[in-house]
UniProtKB/TrEMBL annotation:
Protein name: SsrA-binding protein
HAMAP family: SmpB
SUPFAM superfamilies per record: Small protein B (SmpB) (SSF74982)
Membership in a protein family: Belongs to the SmpB family.
Spans annotated as Disordered: 133-156
Keywords linked to the UniProt accession: Cytoplasm, RNA-binding
C-alpha cells in the first residue's frame, strides 16, 4: 500500500497548498464517493494538488481532485477520475465556511485526505494567498528551524 508521509491513515496531502497559502481555519469533511473510488483510495491513488472547494446552493463540492481508477475496476461503470464530488458537512460548518470565504482574498482548499474509522475524510481549510515575499519568509523560517534542530541534535 503506497501512502504519503505522515500518519499511517493518510491517503494524500496537498503540500502545494501549504506553500501557496496562509492556513486560517481547518475543518474535517466527509465525501460522497462511489465504490471504485473507495477501492482506488485504499490503493493510495489520489491527487489533491489542483483541487479546490466550491460552495454553491448551500452545498460544498470538491473540484479538481483526481482519483485514478484501478485497472481492475468494474467494467459496467464509466470511471471519471476528476468528477465533482460532494462534501458532507453540517449546516453550521457550511455557514461558517461560506462567511469566511466571502472575505476578500480568502478561498477554501483541501489540505489532506485520510481514513478515519474506515471512512475517507478530507481536511479542508479556509486560506489566504501568500505574496512572493511571504513565501520567501516561510522558506527562510523553515530552513532556520531545520538548522536549529540539526545544531541541537549534534550538540546533544
Amino acid at each position: 500500500m503506497s501512502q504519503s508521509k505522515g500518519s499511517p491513515a493518510t491517503i494524500a496531502q496537498n503540500r502545494r497548498a501549504r506553500h501557496e497559502y496562509f492556513i486560517e481555519e481547518k475543518v474535517e469533511a466527509g465525501l460522497a464517493l462511489l465504490g471504485w473510488e473507495v477501492k482506488s483510495l485504499r490503493a493510495g491513488k489520489c491527487n489533491l494538488t489542483d483541487a479546490y472547494i466550491l460552495i454553491k446552493n448551500s452545498e460544498a463540492w470538491v473540484i479538481g481532485m483526481h482519483i485514478t481508477p484501478l485497472l481492475a475496476a468494474s467494467t459496467h461503470v464509466v470511471a471519471d477520475p476528476t468528477r465533482t464530488r460532494k462534501l458532507l458537512l453540517k449546516r453550521r460548518e457550511l455557514d461558517r465556511l461560506t462567511g469566511d470565504i466571502q472575505q476578500k482574498g480568502h478561498t477554501c482548499v483541501p489540505l489532506s485526505m485520510y481514513w478515519s474509522h474506515g471512512r475517507a475524510k478530507l481536511e479542508i481549510a479556509v486560506v489566504k494567498g501568500k505574496q512572493l515575499h511571504d513565501k520567501r519568509d516561510s522558506e527562510k523560517q523553515r530552513d532556520w528551524q531545520r538548522e536549529k534542530a540539526r545544531v541541537m541534535r549534534d550538540r546533544g
